[in-house]
Amino acid sequence: MDFSLSEEQEMLKTAAREFLEKECPEDVVREAEEGDLGYRPDLWRKIADLGWLGLAYPEQYGGTGGSFLDLAVLYEEMGRAMFPSPHLSTVALCGLTILAAGKEQQKRDLLPKIAKGELIMALALTEPESSWDGRAWDAEGVTVPATRDGTAYIINGTKLFVHDGHIADYFLCVARTAAGRRPEAGITLFLVDAKSRGIRCTPLKTTAGDKQCEVVFNKVRVPRKNIVGRLNGGWAPLARVLKQGAVLVCAEMVGAEQRLLELTVDYAKTRIQFDMPIGINQYVQEHCVNLLSYLEGARWTTYEAAWRLSEGLPCDMEVAMAKAWTSDGHEKVCWHAHQVHAGVGYTIDDGVLPLYSRRGKTLQYYLGDATYHLKKVAEQMEKWPTLERPKGRPLGLWKIPEEEQIPVWQPWRERWDRLQKRREEIRQAEKKARA
Amino acid sequence: MDFGFTAEQEKLRKEIHDFFANELPEDYATHISPVTRELQAFFLQLQNKAGQKRYLTPGWPREYGGMGLSAVEQGIMQEEEAYFGIVWPASLALRLLGPGLILFGTEEQKKEFIPAIARGEQIWFEAFTEPEAGTDEANQQTRAIPDGDYYVVNGQKTFISGAYKPHYLFTEVRTADVIPKHRGLSVFMIPANLPGITIRPLPTMGFGLQNEIFFDDVRVPKKNMLGELNRGFYHVMEIFTFERSGTGGPAGAIRNLREFVQFCKREKRNGKRLIDDPDVRMMLAQMAVENEVRHLIGWHAQWWFGQRQRLGPKPYDLSGFFQKLLTTRHAEMMSRILGMYGQLRTGSKYAKHDGRTERSWEVTRSLHAAGTFEVNKIVLAGRGLGLPRVPAKFNKQITEALQQER
After folding, report:
1. B99 has a pLDDT exceeding 90
2. Residues 378-417 of A with CB under 8 A from B
3. Cα dihedral sign for A262, A263, A266, A268?
4. Average of pLDDT values for B144-161?
5. How confident is the model at residue B244, as a pLDDT?
6. Domains in chain A and their CATH numbers?
C-alpha cells in the first residue's frame, strides 16, 4: 500500500505544471473557446517535443514506454490548466485503440505520427439515439452500419458528440458490421480519412464552448484495409480504451478540483466583508470542506483505477466507481466554488471560475456520467461472492433480542435507583426535622 | 503507487482471518450488542485468546507485549477485526491507555499496567466528558486537591461509553485554576472500585451503554498520575493521535453493505428481487461507491501514519468526516429500502434482515461521539485548510456583548 508517486512521476508532474502555468494561462483557454480551431497548433508541437504525445506508447512505435499511470499524472496537470488540445481524442481514445487492436503495419504507420504531433484523430462512437438512451458507451448503442461493397465498406449514419471532429485528419469510426444476439460481436473499427466524400462535420453549441461535433457519414466509402484490427472484432479492445479514457477524464477533473480548492480557500481568506475575511463564517467553511471531500474521494478512486489499469488488473468496478464519484463530485465542487466566490465567479469576461465550471459539464458526461457508471457498479455488485459464515460450533447466544434479556448492567441501574431513593428519604427526613 | 499488498501481508491477513473464522461460532451475529452476561463472557474469553497471541496490540513494540507491526500491517488487522464486527471489550485501554503509558508512563506504571492491558485483562473507561465539558473539553470541573500522598477527587463525568464493568478509569481532572483553562488539567489512572466512586448506567439508543461517574472525596494515590502535573491536556491530544479512525470503520461498512446486498438478492418485492428494482439498485451502487471512498481515505490515513517521520503530520484527515456523513446516509437509505419494515427491531415478528437496518439507524444518532460532526468540519477548515477563526480569548467579550444587546 503506497499512495506516493514515483520520483519520475513527481518530475513529470512538476515539469507539466511549470510548462502549463507559463504556456496556458487563462486567455489561451478563452481563445480556444472563442476561436474555430479549439486548440493551439504551436503548443501541440511543443508538447509533442516534450514527449507528452508518445508518453504511453512503446518505444518501437515512437513512444517513451511510460505507463498508463504516468499518463494519468499528466492528465491531472492538463486538467488543472484546462489545457485545450486534442490529446484525449488523438493520443488516448484513438491511439490506445490502435495500439490495442491495430495490425502491426497500422501501428507502425500511425503511432509514430501521433507521437510526433503530425496527426490528429477523433473517435466517432456515440450516436444521437444511444446518447439519449443511456447506451452511448455500450456496444448496443452502436447502430451506424458499415455495409460491404466489393473491397470497401459504406458507412452511412450520424455520430454525435464527437470531440475534435472538426480538426481531425482521421476519424476512428465505430460501426456495426453484423447484427446478432451479442451486440459486441458485430462491431468494426474503421480509419476514415476526414477528407472523404460524404463527411459533414458541424460543431455543436455546448456549455463548455468546446468543439464537440455532429459528424454525418453520408454513404462514405472506406477501403477494407482501413479496418483497424479484425472485422467484427472491434469492441473488446475499444471497451478497454473507453475505461482508460474515463479514468483520464477523471484525472482532468481531479486537477481542476485541486485548483478550485486553492482558489476558493484563497478567496475565503482574502475577501473582506463586514471588516472580516468571509472565511471566518462557518457556512463558507462548510463549502470549502465539502469541496475538499469531493476532491479527496475523486483523487484516490481515480488513482486506484489508474493503477489497476496500469498493472493490467481487473478493474471494471474501480473504473466505474471512480467515474461515478468524480463526475457527480465535480459538479458539486464547481457549485461550492461558485457559492464562495458569489458575484466574481459569475461574470464571463474575466476570471477562471466560469471556465472551470463550464468545462466541467463536458468532463462530467464524457465517457459515462454518474448514472451510467452507477449502473455498471450495480452490475459488478451482482458478482460479489456470498460472505462466508464463521466455522465455530453454534453457541445460541445471539438468537434472542436484547430487550428480552436482562442486560448485565441491570444491577448497577438498580443500585443507582436504590441510592437515589435513600437520598430522597434522607432529604425528606431532614426537611421534616427542620419543620 | 501501489494499492495492493505484498505476499507477506496477505499471509498476515489470512492468519488473522482464520483465527476469527475458527474462534467465532457459526451463529455469531455482528449486529447484536454484548449486553448479556453470557455474551460478555464470550467476548472476554475471545479477548484473552487473542491477547495470548498478541493480536490485541499489533502495533506495540514486542517488549511491551505487541507484535511490532507496521502501520499498513496494523491496518490489515483492523480490517479483519471489523469484517467480523469485533470490538474488543478492552478496546479503550488498548487504543489509548497503552500508547499513553508507552509515551508518558513511568517505569513502574508501565510494569504495572502494560502487560495486563496487552493480555486484555483490564477494562478501562475513558472519562473526559462532563455535563459542562463536551465539545469544550478543557472546561473540566472535576477537581483534584492534593492531600499528602493522595489527590482528593470530587466531581462528575458523563456519557462515558462502556458496557463492561471497568477496572480502571482514565480521567482528566482539574489540578489548577488558570486561564487558559486547558493548562490546569492532569490525567489520572483511577481504580474503579475506590470508595466514593459511583457509576450510573445510561442506556442509549441502539442497545449501547454509556455511564455517569460520580466522584465523592475519592482518594487517588499521587503515583497514579500519568505524565506531568497540569500537562494533561497536551498528553491527551498526543494520545488521541493514536485514535486512528484508520481502516476498520470502512471495512465494517463494506461488510454491512455486502450483507445487505445479499439480502436484496434473496428478498422479493412485487414479483422481482429487490436488487432488480432500479431505485434500489442505484441506492446500493451509490453506497458501494461511497464505501470505496471511505476505504481509500482510511488507507491513506493509515499509510501516512506509517510514513509520518518522513512526511510530517497529515494536514487533514477526512476519515471522521466521511464516517459521520455516510453512516447516517447509508443507514437511512437501507431503512427506506425496507419502508415500513425498516422500523422492526431484531427479534420482532416480521422483521427483515433480522432488524439489522433498524439497529444501524439507531446508532446513527451517536455520531457526535469522539468529536461532533461540526467540530470535525471546523478542524478541517481551520487546521486543514487554514481558514480563519475568532481567537478563543474574545469569546467571553462576545458573550457579554450579546447579553448587553439583549
Report:
1. no
2. 378, 381-382, 384, 386-409, 412-413, 416
3. negative
4. 95
5. 61
6. 236-381 (1.20.140.10)
| B22/A2 Cβ within 8 A | no
What's chain B's average pLDDT? 93
Maximum pairwise Cα distance, chain B: 77
How much is the average pLDDT of B121-141? 91
Residues 325-344 of A with CB under 8 A from B: 325
Residue range A341-381, pLDDT digits in tens: 998 888 888 789 999 999 999 999 999 999 999 999 999 99
Residue B284: which of A381, A405, A413 has the nearest Cβ?
A: A381
Q: For residues B331 and B365, what is the distance between their CA atoms, to the nearest angstrom?
A: 11
Q: Which three cell numbers stand for residue B144?
A: 483534584
CA distance A368 to A285: 31
Angle at B16 between CA B15 and CA B18, to 5 degrees: 65
B26–A390 CB contact, under 8 Å: yes
Comparing alpha-carbon positions, the chain B residue that sits nearest to A287 is: B381
- Nearest Cα neighbor of B87 from B175, B150, B161, B194 is B161
CB proximity A303 to B under 8 Å? yes
Mean predicted confidence (pLDDT) in B22-28:
95
Q: Is B248 exposed, middle or buried (0-12, 13-18, 19+ CB in 10 A)?
A: buried
A269–B387 C-beta distance less than 8 A: yes
Using CA atoms, how far residue A435 sits from A94, A431, B378, in Å, is: 98, 6, 55
Backbone conformation region of residue B51, classed left if phi is above 0, alpha if psi is from -120 to 50, else beta = alpha
Please give the helix or strand (H or E) that residue A202 lies within, else none: strand A199-203
Bond prior to B195 in cis (omega within 30° of 0):
no
Vertex B71: Cα angle to B167 and A76 (nearest 5): 135
Q: Summarize the confidence of residues B28-50 as an average pLDDT.
A: 92
Q: Which domains does chain B have, with CATH numbers?
A: 7-89 (1.10.540.10), 124-231 (2.40.110.10), 248-371 (1.20.140.10)
- pLDDT at residue number B245: 63
Catalytic residue positions of B?
243
C-alpha dist (Å) from residue A18 to A23, A74, B79, B171: 9, 12, 41, 53
SS percent in chain B: helix, strand, coil, step 5? 55, 15, 30
* Residue B276: Cβ-neighbour burial (10 angstroms; 0-12, 13-18, 19+): middle
CA distance A221 to B173: 86
Counting as low any pLDDT under 70, the low residues of chain A are 400-404
- Mean pLDDT, rounded, for B23-34: 91
Distance between CA atoms of B165 and B124, rounded to whole angstroms? 9
